[in-house]
């Protein structure tokens, strides 16, 4: 995918008279935003990460804009009043070293235009439309392969007219270099050269595909008539089209899958691809490496991906790592218990350390158990964040203990990974399991184990207990081939890659801070309604909270659930045997206003049942 865009915005826009006396053309307002901001928002939501603007006339406007969008870099064409658009583009010679989308600043367009170019299989593509009859068209002539031959404003000078130039083009870095090479010589003779002319000169050696879109809402704004058309016809059409594409926002307060961004959702819509292709291998490799980097250095740790829900990774870990010795499983909630059940299913020797659900475990007791059985105990397994209660286990202290007894540590970090900071080396964690759909904010379907490479290599000698969920085999195969052993969830992995991009962009620390803010808001709200939660703040991960249900007989969880669900809010039942609770997760693509909305509806509901004391 192309990650950069160049917008040519140096020109005077003199045909718009007084409208462009005090501001450049890109700052004309259409609807609620300026033309340039419409364009920038489209670019960002199409996955563009770097936007270069070629400025000249009234460049301060764009420089002010760059202060608001950190993705923008402005580069000035100082001779904007005596040069053409190629001169502006040439200024980027030393800035842009990658494929990019080239756009003019006076365009209003439907974002679909960018999607077409992003996914187009040719590296150099010029976007064309049907003729718009706006009296200012640039007509395009193509050959029999729909490749660019010529462009002219005067249609009599062309042999055929295939379509009209939109002014949005995808250029490969190679073609850009060739363009600059040509322009370098040509601009000395003719500073007024425009980029369209330069492309024509180049297209016999670098074929440029012309892609004609059938019904794209777009226009260029050069004069009053264009502006009127933009406001009255094109913009309403774009808004109408957007409506069809907007995905309704649901407020998910269940403990995963968490709500995702639209960009993560859309990332799944890709051309069909065979997952054995190198191109797809690169997607998995990149994603796996970035996952490793969240918790460890890539020299010593690696990520092994599996298709499956989170439990698949936990199962791969438990079944592949412990050989003839004993696994000590810490159980202080439903997910600790699940590890015992997995060990049971595979007939693994284990002992269970059962500890209270709402209290930190006792390190002393844990040490006593290890000591008593030592050296039979080879591994300890623990859930980092017990999703049933919100209790955060102190894995760093457990890791230190394991170091003393030379025992390896396995952590189920499913609901803490990518929020609560983890450092595998410092915390002495040898294996860690997590999945795509909780704090990572991706789609459900990929789970993974992050492992110390030295430990992994040792697993070679253990007789396989599971064919599919074999950690060593999956690791070895991926290392050799860049592929998973069996068909991966292809589209889910594309979404996961985008989720990783977005997690990096937000930053794990910032993400956790955002979650914690939401948690504070939640706790304040439920406390005001007279409700309590079970784990004390100092031991709470602040991600998922078990809230004690009202004990009144008029209250039924399912009715509360349905009441909220009808209003776009999803909540989740509790999972504790001895206490009636429901659970609220404050993770995922969530905002404060959405927690407030939940609290509002909860209050309304409790009032309706007359369950509020005041
Ligand atoms: C969510 C979760 C899992 C995995 O659940 P799946 O339904 O298999 O995705 C495992 N452990 C913990 C602590 C979890 O929160």
From TrEMBL:
Its cofactor is pyridoxal 5'-phosphate. Its EC number is 2.6.1.37. Pfam families: Aminotran_5, NTP_transf_3. Gene3D superfamilies: Aspartate Aminotransferase, domain 1 (3.90.1150.10), Spore Coat Polysaccharide Biosynthesis Protein SpsA, Chain A (3.90.550.10), Type I PLP-dependent aspartate aminotransferase-like (Major domain) (3.40.640.10). InterPro entries: Aminotrans_V_dom, MobA-like_NTP_Trfase, NH2EtPonate_pyrv_transaminase, Nucleotide-diphossugar_trans, PyrdxlP-dep_Trfase, PyrdxlP-dep_Trfase_major, PyrdxlP-dep_Trfase_small. Residues 266-574 form the Aminotransferase class V domain. It comes from the Bacteria. One of its GO terms (molecular function) is nucleotidyltransferase activity. The keyword Transferase applies. Keywords: Aminotransferase, Pyridoxal phosphate, Pyruvate, Transferase. Belongs to the class-V pyridoxal-phosphate-dependent aminotransferase family. PhnW subfamily. Homodimer. NCBIfam families: PhnW-AepZ, PRK13479.1. This is 2-aminoethylphosphonate--pyruvate transaminase. It comes from Bacillus taeanensis. The lineage of its organism: Bacteria, Bacillati, Bacillota, Bacilli, Bacillales.
